[in-house]
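Regression test attached.
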Amino acid sequence: MNGRAGMSIERWTPLSVAAMGAVAVLAAALALGPLFLGAYAVDRLTTLFIYVLLASMWNALAGYGGLVSVGQQAFFGLGAYAAIRLSSFGVPVYAALVLGGMLAGAAAYAVSGFALRLRGGEFAIGMWVLAELFHLLVNLDRLIQGETGTSLIALNAFAPGNRRDYNYWLALASMAGLLALMFTLLRGRLGSSVQAIRDSEEAAASLGVRVLAAKRIVYVIAGAGCGLAGTLYLATSISFQPATYFGVQWTAYMIFMVLVGGLGTFEGPIIGAIVFFIIENLFGASGIWYLVGLGATAVVFALYLPRGLWGTVEEKFGIRLLPVGYRVAQRP
Amino acid sequence: MSLLAVERLDVRHGQLQAVRDVSLAVREGETLALVGANGAGKTTLLRAIAGAHRPVGGRVLLDGVDVTQVPAHRRVAQGIALVPEGRRLFPGMTVEENLLVASANGRPGPWTIERVLEVFPMLRARFRAKAGSLSGGEQQATAIGRGLLTNPRVLLLDEVSLGLAPVAVERVYACLESLISAGATLVLVEQDLGRALRVATRVACMLEGRIVLEGAASGMTREQVTEAYFGLGRGALPKQAA
Amino acid sequence: MIWLNQIIQGVLLGGYYALIACGLSFMFGVMRIINLAHGDLAVLAAFLVWAIVDRSGMSPFLALAIVLPVMGALGWLLQRAMLERSLRAGVLVPLLTTFGLGIVIQNLLFEQFGADTRSLAPAIGDLAFDSWSIGSQIYVGHLAGLIFMVAVALLGGLQLLLARTPLGRAIRATAEDPDTAELVGIDARSVYAAAAAIAVMTVAIAGTFLGMRAAFAPYAGPAQLIFAFEAVVIGGLGSMWGTLLGGIVLGVAQNLGAQIAPNGFLIAGHTVFLVVLGGRLLRQRMRRAS
């Protein structure tokens, strides 16, 4: 257009190209991890991957879908339970772990028609009630022995060293896979739909955005992702106590990670997970004050730093590392 | 000395500048009519005067006192009342309750619920009805009554004839005229130019956030106001590219 | 006959649920906030009353009289320091901040009082055990009856407050339209703070009775929150008497569930909640389609 300052819409900046390159290199390096890292490091990294997975899933729900769920532990526990049940039927254990996560996703799909019609606080606590109900129903299965729980004994067929490496790779693949899935979806139509819904559901619907369908996609992925996280946690700890897996502390951790990292950004939950991981390693043994600190920090961030660490950086410096959104660029 | 003064007021709606460098003065007993097209900034200006919208620059003065930083509910206590655009009654509460709420939280003064009912006798029959079930005219009467019950020194009225049947508008203006003759100070936003010119002492016309015409109503012609309203004769239109 | 007794016990339990739920319903009705720390505040009150009773030996009812203004002030403070800001920041933020607050309260209680469960039952003597018997199989506990009556009185009181008093009208006006309420001279922030104070005081009453009818521990909050929320939703969000009805339905469902199966108590409650919620959604859909 003549006389108008040159503006264009772009997705990629030199920085984000570099960032994507770095991500590819990092992924390759991580994949080779068990070959040159010690047992402790492999173990810890596996836990980190689980946290990243949980954080991104909760962020997908709340940050992109606008759905604050205080009950994702429903799927975390359900995935783990499904894995144990499948294994008891003779399904090979690592397949059972993956399938467990998928089944949690299926459960999310099954309840989505009901759950997604709830609003705000109703949805939040409704999910919590669902988690409690799943917990109670799982307890009814004799295999679980009520609150005593049981173990995924089939894992013992593997030598501890191999098991650790397989867990690592499964965790890495799950985390990377779900992140890649979200990345692709958010760059496409779902990303725009979700953004529109976040800004104004009514307006979005009037434009033809299929609101329920978009939310459902996010909800099912989040369900499957949390389910996978649950089976991965089971793989690392081997034992399953319903109270632990269906406990609301998982939501507390997810909320902390996402709030601190940056709600609604792609990189935020990853950073939040890393922060949480470091804090847990340093202070996890401090017991009560650790939990108090987590809660208080979440409150402070929600009130004063609502965009989280990464969101604030993004806003202040205008950087976008991973090209999920669009930018308007001025050409001189 | 003016009762209400606005000095170089700048008000924004997010990124949009709704009121630009507006200065006005209203003396006690005067009625100022604010006219202008939709989106000219009239409602925003009234809301800023009432304290419902924080300006980014300029001042609002009541009787010489700077009230720019005073929150809306305290401005009511000091004597500024706004009858908002669209009436904005509390729909789940009855007419009586809507009036009681204003009476209880406003200033002491001559206005009582009984007096409001005398001015708007049609409200007697609907006294216990929920505000949401009233007709347009009844709602407007209640809204004005609610404003009056705070015993304001300056009453701001935003588009009181909006959406009303002509008969209802007549009634509302009859009430306003009696208020004016009793010495009230009013700032009135009105789309109906004829009424505005008849009722007001002074007229100000807004266009794109600025005051483009101001003066005594008696000395103003409809043509003058219409020109200012549409921004005609303001300057050449931007030339089209060849 | 056993079934009838279970139903009656359910109704009485509903009185307790209405008590714990009315603060939640009140806050939601006025501010559209669901306070996820609601149950934890009840447990906090129970612990405060217990601490006073433990140290001084006075009656829990007297201790409640002391704790009530303290909790009211806490509610006021909570609103001004935290919830007010949360409200402005959007719909998600109040959920997140109250959730974080709940965690802080639970763990501070644990730090102070340890994991042991406590109870106020020993301090009220016979009141905890006595009951009236109707026929040979129906029992109405004195305490349960008292709780039910307190619930009805409190709900009635709140209803009266809202309907007849200037504060109540100011609260209702602010709840409907805070912007316009300011234009008629109402200080919305003060109204919200007063409503929060009232809500937390009702929570204190509920917490005290929780301590009398059952045992409590630092992490007992979330369970109470869930019961309160279920009662509110079953009865219809925003209606005071609906909360009583919701509490009764929940209590009856739970007791009948317990009668049917050993683990049935909680399962029945959650199921009824989900069914009612689902039914309501279905009706909304059908109404929209027509």
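Expected vs. actual: identical. Chain C touches chain A through 45 residues (CB under 8 Å).
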